[in-house]
Write a structure and sequence with these properties.
The chain has 324 residues and is an alpha/beta fold. It is built from nine helices and 13 strands. The chain has helices at residues 11-22, 79-84, 86-107, 143-163, 187-196, 216-227, 245-256, 282-288, 296-313, and strands at residues 2-6, 26-31, 50-54, 69-72, 110-116, 167-172, 175-176, 201-204, 210-212, 214-215, 235-237, 242-244, 262-265. The strands form four sheets. It has a seven-stranded parallel β-sheet with strand order 3-2-1-4-5-6-11, with helices on both faces. The radius of gyration is 19 Å and the shape is globular. The structure holds uridine-5'-diphosphate. Uridine-5'-diphosphate binds at residues 79, 174, 186-187, 190, 202-205, 209, 211, 245, 270, 273.
């Protein structure tokens, strides 16, 4: 296959590029590097089966030659990013999805949309099955991401129903791993770097809100299976093991041997922060034969060396943290 991955220089996109190359496919990574980073794919430059195209997919997308599959992963995805880049977030998920769908039509390519657990908003049903329609505030600060992803799902289904395009929709729950940016702002990179610096972990609000974290290799496996399946309706991919953020902070401190504890930051409570989130993965298990394989403790251990290296480069690592 020849595969186009939008957002290919991002956290998840770069892991997808690697997986498709490993499986013997040709990969074109497209990214405008707004939140992506060329360093994430630098090790792939020089591979004859890999190409990088710097392009903003909110503008018309031209790619010469055949394409068999398009994986549309371009979008800011961290709450601090989409709060800072609200219009870009709306555009990449609306105009960018429209352009990527048009390209899929032109090339006769299968299309996979990266959607999100944020389509469920602050959910009133727990855990969240795909049949739940969500509880989203359209005019709140998170609405720019949530509603844009909901639009992206709607237009993807419209292309499927009206044009017979082969489409897949994944709803991705909290995912972590190497290549998240230091300044990403999401809870895993924040906690791991705070732990490596021997700082207390910053728990926003009262820390009673919950999340369920999956390691990136589990997600990539699920995505690969979904693309190759016949499933058109959305599929949740996530790890159902749920923690309060306070419990999660304690776990990160334990795994990283951080003696500095946690600090509760009630003033940093985020507007419309979902109070619970846990995927119901019944459909992924039965349709794809997929389930997560990496325990959170192992996933954190696999992620720590990446952040240690980033901090070391910046000279921000206490001397005794170079090997722990
Ligand atoms: N959070 C936190 N401390 C941090 C960063 C985030 O307590 O340093 C909380 C945040 O308020 C939210 C949860 O962790 O309740 C997950 O936030 P994240 O930004 O990782 O992603 P989200 O799941 O909200 O998209």
């Amino acid at each position: 296959m020849r595969v186009l991955i939008t957002g290919g220089a991002g956290f998840i996109g770069s892991h997808l590029c690697e997986r498709f190359l490993q499986e013997g496919h040709d990969v074109i990574a497209m990214d405008n590097l707004l939140t992506g980073n060329a360093e994430n794919i630098a090790h792939l430059f020089g591979n004859d089966h890999f190409r990088f195209v710097k392009h903003d997919v909110t503008h018309y997308i031209y790619v010469a030659g055949p394409i068999d599959a398009i994986l549309h992963f371009a979008s800011p995805a961290s709450p601090i990013d989409y709060l800072e880049l609200p219009i870009q977030t709306l555009k990449v998920n609306a105009l960018g999805t429209h352009n990527a769908l048009g390209l899929a039509m032109e090339k006769g390519a299968r299309f996979l949309l990266a959607s999100t657990s944020e389509v469920y908003g602050d959910p009133l049903i727990h855990p969240q099955p795909e049949s739940y329609w969500g509880n989203v505030n359209p005019v709140g600060p998170r609405g720019v991401y949530d509603e844009a992803k909901r639009f992206a799902e709607a237009i993807t289904m419209a292309y499927h129903r009206s044009h017979g395009l082969e489409t897949r929709i994944v709803r991705i729950f909290n995912t972590y791993g190497p290549r998240m940016r230091l300044a990403d702002g999401r809870v895993v990179p924040n906690f791991i770097q705070q732990a490596l610096r021997h700082e207390p972990l910053t728990v926003y609000g009262d820390g009673g809100q919950t999340r369920s974290f999956q390691y990136v290799s589990d997600l990539v496996e699920g995505l690969y299976k979904l693309l190759h399946s016949d499933e058109v309706d959305p599929v949740n991919i996530g790890n159902p093991r749920e923690f309060t953020i306070r419990q999660f902070a304690e776990l990160v401190n334990e795994v990283t041997n951080n003696p500095a504890g946690i600090t509760i930051k009630p003033d940093l409570r985020i507007t419309d922060d979902p109070q619970t989130r846990q995927p119901d993965i019944t459909r992924a298990c039965s349709i794809l034969g997929w389930e997560p394989a990496v325990e959170i403790e192992d996933g954190i251990r696999l992620t720590v060396p990446y952040f240690r290296e980033q901090l070391r480069r910046l000279g921000q690592l206490p001397p005794d943290r170079h090997s722990t």
